[in-house]
Amino acid sequence: MRGLLLFAFLLGADAPAAPAAWYQSLDSIREAASTLKTLQASFTQTRTLRILRKPLVSRGILAYRRPDDLRWEYQSPLATLLVVRKGNAQRWLRRGHEWVTDHSAKLEAMKLVLGEIGLWLDGNFNASKTFRPELRPPGKGRPAHVRLVPLDPSLGKIIAAIAISFGEKPGTVGAIDIFEHGEGVTHIAFDDLRANQDLPDERFEPPR
């Protein structure tokens, strides 16, 4: 009898079904992300190019507040600050002890990128007019992720695809991989993630 009971236990005859992952569908991802009103994290960005012997490594911090306030700050090796407040994007460069407003043409391209990042943090992948989302299950040493494919062929000549991997906490992003067409890969890994903490308006205002 003991042997039969042990056999039944090992087979998991009475074991409850495992709970469904929060990232089982694009709708469940958005639902999980909706519970996060604010996000803060540090990040390490590693860009690998064929023409470089060593990858380019940058570090910084991220702050996000629903519905559309975003702070993306590179702290090293060069100090750069990008802020989106109520849909208005601005960028500053650190020059010595002062912050200088960036008026270059790059800002327009960055507005597109920042807008997409806001959608990713919001879990709202279907709202993008730039990329087609494809939900991929875990496999071959890679966690579950959303693969984004450019809709515009001209953009596809620059960015082959983007992969958004999920964090441990429901609704969060663990890493972003940007695959450049025939050039290289930019990997952004997030650490020390804090959710639903108060973020004052000062975090989304021009530097002082």
Report what the structure shows.
- With 208 residues, the chain is α+β, with helices and mostly antiparallel strands.
- It has one domain: Lipoprotein localisation LolA/LolB/LppX (outer membrane lipoprotein receptor (LolB), chain A, Clam).
- It has helices spanning 2-11, 26-33, 106-121, 153-156; strands at 38-49, 56-65, 69-76, 80-85, 88-95, 98-101, 131-136, 145-150, 159-166, 173-180, 184-195.
- It has an 11-stranded antiparallel beta sheet with strand order 6-5-4-3-2-1-11-10-9-8-7.
- The protein starts with a helix and ends in a 13-residue tail after the last strand.
- Mean pLDDT is 85; it is low at 1-19.
Q: Which regions contain 5 or more consecutive residues with pLDDT less than 50?
A: 1-19
How many β-strands, per DSSP? 11
Determine and state the CATH class: Mainly Beta
Query: Order of SSEs, N→C?
Result: HHEEEEEEHEEHEEE
What's the helical proportion of residues? 10-25%
Task: Give the structural class.
Answer: alpha+beta
User: On the 0-100 scale, what is the average pLDDT?
Assistant: 85
Q: Report the end-to-end length measured between terminal Cα atoms.
A: 76 Å
Total separate domains: 1
- Radius of gyration using CA atoms only: 20 Å
How would you write the strand order of the largest sheet?
Answer: 6-5-4-3-2-1-11-10-9-8-7
Q: What sort of overall outline do the alpha carbons produce when their principal axes are compared?
A: globular
Find the CATH superfamily. Lipoprotein localisation LolA/LolB/LppX
Count of DSSP-assigned helices: 4
Estimate what percentage of residues fall within beta strands.
35-45%
Write the CATH architecture name. Answer: Clam
User: How is the main sheet built?
Assistant: 11 strands, antiparallel
- What is the third-level CATH name, the topology? outer membrane lipoprotein receptor (LolB), chain A
